[in-house]
Amino acid sequence: MIELDNNAIGVVIRDLRKKKGLSQEVLSGFAVIARSHLAMIETGDKIPNLITLWRIATALDLHPYELIKMIEQASAEK
User: Fold this and answer.
1) 15 pLDDT exceeds 80?
2) With contact defined as beta carbons under 8 Å apart, do 74 and 11 qualify?
3) CA 10 to CA 8: how far, in whole Å?
4) Is residue 24 part of a domain?
5) 1 is a domain residue
6) Rounded Cα gap, residues 69 and 54, in angstroms
7) Cα atoms in the 13 Å half-sphere on the side-chain side of 63
8) Residue 64 lies in a domain
9) Residue 78 exposed, middle or buried by CB count within 10 Å (0-12, 13-18, 19+)
10) How many CB atoms are located within 10 Å of the residue 10 CB?
11) Cα–Cα distance for residue pair 62/77, rounded to 1 Å
């Protein structure tokens, strides 16, 4: 069984955001969440709910299952 790693969620989202050349301000605007909320997710201080993950995935031009799969893979590597 793969355990969810809170830090993996943030690392994956931050890496994807940076690869797209987006600031936290821009990605949070696209995802319709507060920049501070995104910052807390990226640092592992906050765990996003499904709606927030969905919004972030969509803002990154991903299907939600693709983002979750990337988080799952990053958690498994720990």
Assistant:
1) yes
2) yes
3) 5
4) yes
5) no
6) 13
7) 3
8) yes
9) exposed
10) 23
11) 21
pLDDT band per the 50, 70, 90 thresholds, residue 4: confident
**pLDDT digits 0-9 by tens, 26-70:** 999 999 999 999 999 999 999 999 999 999 999 999 999 999 999
- Structural domain count of the chain: 1
Other CB atoms within 10 Å distance of the CB of residue 67: 20
Q: What is the CATH number of the domain that holds 44?
A: 1.10.260.40
More confident residue, 48 or 2: 48
Is 44 domain-assigned? yes
Identity at 68, one-letter amino acid code: I
Distances (CA, A) of 8 to 15, 29, 47, 62: 10, 22, 11, 17
Which residues constitute the domain of residue 64? Answer: 6-77
Residue 10: per-residue pLDDT: 97
Q: Which of 21, 33, 25, 23 is nearest to 58 (CA)?
A: 33
